[in-house]
Amino acid sequence: MSIQQSDVLYTAVATAENGRDGRVATDDGKLDVVVNPPVEMGGSGAGTNPEQLFAAGYSACFQGALGVVARQENADISGSTVTAKVGIGKNDEGFGLIVEISANIPNVDAETAASLVKKAHEVCPYSKATRGNITVTLG
Protein backbone atom coordinates (compact mmCIF):
# COMPACT_ATOMS: atom_id res chain seq x y z
CA MET A 1 0.00 0.00 0.00
CA SER A 2 1.46 3.35 -0.98
CA ILE A 3 0.87 6.74 0.60
CA GLN A 4 -0.44 9.75 -1.27
CA GLN A 5 1.52 12.99 -1.52
CA SER A 6 -1.14 14.69 0.63
CA ASP A 7 -0.38 12.17 3.42
CA VAL A 8 3.36 12.92 3.64
CA LEU A 9 4.29 14.23 7.09
CA TYR A 10 7.96 14.99 6.45
CA THR A 11 10.40 14.78 3.57
CA ALA A 12 14.16 14.49 4.04
CA VAL A 13 16.34 15.82 1.23
CA ALA A 14 19.97 14.79 0.76
CA THR A 15 22.33 15.39 -2.12
CA ALA A 16 25.38 13.26 -2.93
CA GLU A 17 28.46 14.39 -4.81
CA ASN A 18 30.78 11.82 -6.43
CA GLY A 19 28.72 8.82 -5.35
CA ARG A 20 30.34 6.40 -2.92
CA ASP A 21 33.58 8.40 -2.85
CA GLY A 22 32.57 11.95 -2.09
CA ARG A 23 30.17 13.78 0.15
CA VAL A 24 26.51 13.71 1.12
CA ALA A 25 24.61 16.52 2.78
CA THR A 26 21.05 17.37 3.74
CA ASP A 27 19.40 20.55 2.54
CA ASP A 28 19.01 21.81 6.12
CA GLY A 29 22.73 21.42 6.92
CA LYS A 30 22.16 18.99 9.80
CA LEU A 31 24.09 16.22 8.04
CA ASP A 32 27.20 16.80 5.96
CA VAL A 33 29.55 13.83 5.76
CA VAL A 34 32.40 12.50 3.69
CA VAL A 35 31.55 9.14 2.18
CA ASN A 36 34.14 6.60 1.10
CA PRO A 37 33.93 2.93 0.28
CA PRO A 38 35.11 0.71 3.13
CA VAL A 39 38.58 -0.79 2.89
CA GLU A 40 36.96 -4.19 2.16
CA MET A 41 35.59 -2.70 -1.06
CA GLY A 42 38.83 -1.07 -2.14
CA GLY A 43 38.18 2.33 -0.58
CA SER A 44 40.08 4.37 1.94
CA GLY A 45 37.48 3.88 4.67
CA ALA A 46 38.21 7.48 5.70
CA GLY A 47 34.57 8.56 5.85
CA THR A 48 31.30 6.86 6.49
CA ASN A 49 29.63 4.78 3.80
CA PRO A 50 26.07 4.34 2.54
CA GLU A 51 25.66 1.03 4.37
CA GLN A 52 26.48 2.67 7.70
CA LEU A 53 24.00 5.45 6.99
CA PHE A 54 21.33 2.90 6.05
CA ALA A 55 22.05 0.89 9.22
CA ALA A 56 21.74 4.04 11.32
CA GLY A 57 18.41 4.97 9.76
CA TYR A 58 17.00 1.44 9.88
CA SER A 59 17.97 0.88 13.53
CA ALA A 60 16.47 4.22 14.62
CA CYS A 61 13.26 3.61 12.67
CA PHE A 62 12.96 0.06 13.98
CA GLN A 63 13.45 1.28 17.57
CA GLY A 64 10.58 3.69 16.99
CA ALA A 65 8.38 0.89 15.64
CA LEU A 66 9.32 -1.22 18.65
CA GLY A 67 8.11 1.62 20.87
CA VAL A 68 4.77 1.76 19.06
CA VAL A 69 4.26 -1.98 19.44
CA ALA A 70 5.38 -1.96 23.08
CA ARG A 71 2.82 0.73 23.94
CA GLN A 72 0.08 -1.33 22.27
CA GLU A 73 1.18 -4.42 24.21
CA ASN A 74 1.83 -2.56 27.51
CA ALA A 75 5.40 -3.87 27.48
CA ASP A 76 8.30 -2.15 29.20
CA ILE A 77 11.07 -1.62 26.65
CA SER A 78 12.96 1.01 28.63
CA GLY A 79 16.70 0.57 28.16
CA SER A 80 16.23 -1.34 24.93
CA THR A 81 18.52 -1.01 21.92
CA VAL A 82 18.19 -2.04 18.29
CA THR A 83 21.18 -2.92 16.12
CA ALA A 84 21.06 -3.14 12.34
CA LYS A 85 23.88 -4.90 10.51
CA VAL A 86 23.83 -4.00 6.82
CA GLY A 87 25.96 -6.01 4.43
CA ILE A 88 26.62 -5.39 0.76
CA GLY A 89 27.72 -8.05 -1.68
CA LYS A 90 27.44 -9.30 -5.21
CA ASN A 91 24.25 -10.91 -6.45
CA ASP A 92 22.80 -11.87 -9.84
CA GLU A 93 21.97 -8.24 -10.66
CA GLY A 94 25.30 -6.74 -9.56
CA PHE A 95 25.18 -5.80 -5.89
CA GLY A 96 22.59 -6.17 -3.17
CA LEU A 97 22.07 -5.62 0.52
CA ILE A 98 21.39 -7.95 3.41
CA VAL A 99 20.24 -6.82 6.85
CA GLU A 100 20.19 -8.39 10.28
CA ILE A 101 18.11 -6.64 12.95
CA SER A 102 18.61 -7.50 16.60
CA ALA A 103 17.10 -5.98 19.69
CA ASN A 104 18.16 -6.07 23.31
CA ILE A 105 15.08 -5.62 25.47
CA PRO A 106 16.18 -6.15 29.08
CA ASN A 107 12.83 -5.78 30.87
CA VAL A 108 10.90 -8.56 29.12
CA ASP A 109 11.40 -12.31 28.75
CA ALA A 110 12.86 -13.80 25.57
CA GLU A 111 9.49 -14.92 24.18
CA THR A 112 7.94 -11.47 24.66
CA ALA A 113 11.01 -9.81 23.14
CA ALA A 114 10.83 -12.03 20.06
CA SER A 115 7.12 -11.28 19.66
CA LEU A 116 7.68 -7.53 19.97
CA VAL A 117 10.50 -7.61 17.40
CA LYS A 118 8.39 -9.61 14.95
CA LYS A 119 5.50 -7.16 15.31
CA ALA A 120 7.83 -4.16 15.00
CA HIS A 121 9.13 -5.65 11.74
CA GLU A 122 5.56 -5.60 10.41
CA VAL A 123 5.04 -1.89 11.14
CA CYS A 124 8.53 -0.38 10.64
CA PRO A 125 8.59 1.77 7.47
CA TYR A 126 12.13 0.59 6.62
CA SER A 127 11.02 -3.04 6.97
CA LYS A 128 8.04 -2.37 4.75
CA ALA A 129 10.22 -0.64 2.15
CA THR A 130 12.70 -3.51 1.98
CA ARG A 131 10.25 -6.41 2.24
CA GLY A 132 10.60 -8.63 -0.81
CA ASN A 133 13.62 -6.64 -2.04
CA ILE A 134 16.40 -7.70 0.31
CA THR A 135 16.94 -10.39 2.91
CA VAL A 136 16.18 -9.12 6.41
CA THR A 137 16.60 -11.46 9.34
CA LEU A 138 15.55 -10.85 12.90
CA GLY A 139 17.99 -11.91 15.57
From TrEMBL:
Pfam family of the protein (one): OsmC
Signal peptide, first to last residue: none
UniProt-listed InterPro entries: KH_dom-like_a/b (IPR015946), OHR (IPR019953), OsmC/Ohr_fam (IPR003718), OsmC/Ohrsf (IPR036102)
Example GO biological process: response to oxidative stress
NCBIfam families in UniProt: organ_hyd_perox (TIGR03561)
Stated family: Belongs to the OsmC/Ohr family.
Name of the protein this chain belongs to: Organic hydroperoxide resistance protein
